[in-house]
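Quick log. Single chain, no ligands specified.
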Amino acid sequence: MPKTQENLITVIDVGSAKTCVLIAESSDAGLRYRGHGIMQSRGSRKGVITDLEKAKASIQQAVESAEQSAGVQVERAVIGIGGPHVRGVNSRGGIALGVRPREIFRDELRQAVQRAKAISLPDDRQTLHLLPQEFIVDEQGSIQDPVGMVASRLEVNAHIVTAASAATQNVVTAANRAGIHVDDVVFEALACADAILQLDERELGVCLLDIGAGSTEIIVFYEGAVAHSAAVQIGGDHFTNDIAVGLRTPIHEAEKIKKLFGCAVVTAVPQGHEIEVPAVAERPSRMMSQRLVAEILEPRARELFEMVRDNLRQAGVLEALGAGCVLTGGGARLSAIAEIAEQVLRCPIRVGGAGALSRMPANFAEPEFCTAAGLLLYTHRSRAGRIHQQQRLTERVRALFVGA
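-> predicted structure:
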């Protein structure tokens, strides 16, 4: 494989509304944008593939567009996974090091983490990520890297992100049929965090809400580690459908009205403002109050954040959000939605966009592209970590031969 091809990172965000393929080149200086392709998603709903052939076609078209934009051929990619089937659970595992305290090595870390991973999952679920939160050395917690320390027992608290096996495999199969080998699958909210969240937010406690078309993914960080992950079954499409039903207008027209005139707070819309609302079939358009749109959207926005609040409360992390909550995804662009989130969740709220990569188009900093940008950053960081581990292993082997 040419070296240029080795340095390429391709990621695919298969959403309910759009399929986005993003290509970047990795180097010692960081990531450089190469190209992208965006197509309307077909065959997927609420983060789940419902028609394999249509989903394959959407991925294939988006990949071809990205290849043309970047001037390269894509053979492999990392894919984002989301939807209401994603759930997280906290676990604990540990190993005894012996009667007498001894030094902890990387192998012991791996063994302890594997013990934490050994939880009973239903047959229809699989582990996406195993994320260590803290290590406990002889009952002393809050340790991030215990290698080199001396102890009799090593334990680890970890967060495990799981997903429905069938839903995950269907996304992989759709990509495979489009001619793409899938290197890895990543929880979309975890990837978004790499693009949006600051280190001090992760330490203080922060909740990231990725409001996609079909669902809203949740991930909470506390003291720098993932404390909770989940998803709720409300997304941007629900807002659109509410407008379509309430105003009796086609879905595609409802989407336009939401983007142009939608507001999540009724009182923020001046009285007397009217908008043209296309009717269904051959009926003539009507002039309607813009406030009526807000009257439809505000209850749905409150319902969304009430579901999020209940989810966070049940997980015991609602009071741990010292840095508040960050909204992203296409749904975060709804006017005044942050105001409703602040009222319901009672914490500081901000809308987050991805930091720009070198040469990346400006529109990719918008919230709806944070998943794709985050997948790039997550993959780049993971690849750099693996290379660093390989280099350390090589140095250890070399040292053994030198000392022999």
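Residues 51 and 204 are 42 Å apart (CA to CA).
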